[in-house]
Amino acid sequence: MAEVTSKVDKVAKFADPMAASIEPSTQEMLRRAQQLNIETVFDRAVTMKPCAIGLQGICCKNCAMGPCRLPLPKDGIQGEDTRKGLCGATANTICARNFVRMIAGGTAAHSDHGRNVAETFLAAAKKQTKDYTIKDPAKLIQIAPYFGVATTVEVDGVVKDRDIYEIGVAVGEAAIREWGKPSGTLAYLKRAPKPLQDKWEAEGVMPRNIDREIVECMHRTTMGVDQDYKNLMKQGVRTSLADGWGGAMIGTDLQDVLFGSPTPLQSEANLGVMKADHVNIIVHGHEPLLSEMIVAAAQSQEMIEYAKAKGAKGIQLGGICCTANEILQRHGVPPAGTFLQQELAIITGACDAMVVDVQCIFQNLANVAKCFHTKLITTHPIAKMEQDNVVHIQFDEHHAMEDAIRIVKIAIDNFLNRGAEVMIPRHKSVQIAGFGVESIKYHLGGSFRGDYFTLNDNIINGRIRGIAGVVGCNNARTKHNEEHITLIKELIKNDVIVLTTGCSAIACGIHGLLTPESAAVYCGPGLAEVCETVGIPPVLHLGSCVDNSRILLAATEVVKAGGLGKDICDLPAAGSAPEWMSEKAIAIGQYFVASGVYTVFGYHMPLEGAPVFKDYLYKEMENIYGGKWDCEPDPIKHAHKMIAHIDKKRKELGIDKARDRVLMDMADRQALGME
Ligand code: NFS
What we know:
This protein is an alpha/beta fold. The chain is built from 27 helices and 18 strands. Residues about 660-665 have low confidence and may be disordered. The structure holds FE(4)-NI(1)-S(5) cluster.
């Protein structure tokens, strides 16, 4: 048996496990790491403080005359703000440029993921890859018209259904064109409520194609180009819309067509899903293209027998980050943890292989893996690691299953190399995941009356006070999971139903908020009654971060069902990312705001150094798009800001006092001029 060999000579300062996380298995594994003298992100967060000027958003390093730093004077701006960089760029310009570049970074990440999915989808539709097929033809038929693709064909005067693979090729080709088409605007924008489309059109922020918007962000924010924060933000808005109503939405839809649309299913969550007597494979990252195949390979009889021949009882898969959410929502594979638990999964000593693709992957995983037997496998041509203990197996959709089997075999072969220091925390929770636009319709509307009317009725009668989308990351600068869980418990206590994605959703699973039973424990009486009646959790897991597009479409369905205004900004709804850290979160926040949602981030926003620009995002933006930004690190105050907004919208809709819907009789109808 191999010994744990720490490659870390001296950890400068250890984090206090109780201060680092509210979650027991994380605290336990952090203690374990410290006993073994293995450094984790929690320790580094104690040692390394963030740059105070970068934190304010006013460091410009876009040319070699800088970096120019424009810190806010200690006693604030008195009189005219005279701060400027060498070229004369103001704090507003610098802060807006940095913000827009974050939007571009986030949009690029989601959209490049979407593009990879679209390319694989097209290969599958053309039958160039045997391992992928069209699993959800109904969804393909539903989305085809948005791409101008006919789903029927007329032969000799008879209308017939078109071959599903033929539709697939046409949709795949049209979808890929969304990244680079020379004219027009994005196809999916017309899925938004009409008044919202009109606003975007009037403002000139309809995205033209996905790549162009990202490129234009980079151009406009480079030295000496756009010097007006409002004009810069127009491009920021346009790019974010190219994410939410473009790359991310196409990614979600084509993943559903390729792998099946999620339906609610039961699973578990947390590090305790790993098993000492099984081969443990952790998949981590974002694109489900390879992980789908790994699920199939790990479940194959051949691989299970192979694992047994090596002395294991079976193969246990687990996920980290959004790859976890992808295979959870379609296969019930349990997530082993959120973003901040990735190093800890290896520190269990029981992780035989960690397979990573793109995004949210710590380079330090390689250093931690060196201390154990774990094989760390990178699989994507755009995401390699420099450390020599990392294996690269480049995944190719044309021989996807072969790649997956190779990876699973490496993990199984590695099972025998485990050291003596296996320590898997016991903690895990049961969860129900796999909700989507269609399943909400079904669960809240019933099979005969599947629609959003029931949800709307319950919002109008006040049993459900409003809807919150709580999403996003963990951040080592905040206490792991505390903001997510405190905030969400406060929302559901106040009868606000929560839709969640990303690491927030994993946190909810870990902390037991994704079961119908949790409604009786944590919810206010109205929401508890609805959850009990229809058998849903008060917090609905809608998938990964690209699946925030599902939240946009769910909000659009609520608008369509009627009675709650004409646009997303009329709804008693709010958005939140309480522990955000990624540029992707900023892109998501901005497309929520530009779609009419009041969006509150926790921790901190990199805007404090440019108060005028900050005011533009926090106040003026609402006059243009109906949504605006806000920030509140305290989770209880954060929840109440969202609730106050929800109440304001209820008042504007005239449903602030209503408790039960009053059915109109004939006289009432006649009084309103209705028949
Ligand atoms: Ni979203 Fe999903 Fe998690 Fe944050 Fe990273 S995994 S794409 S970026 S950390 S929620």
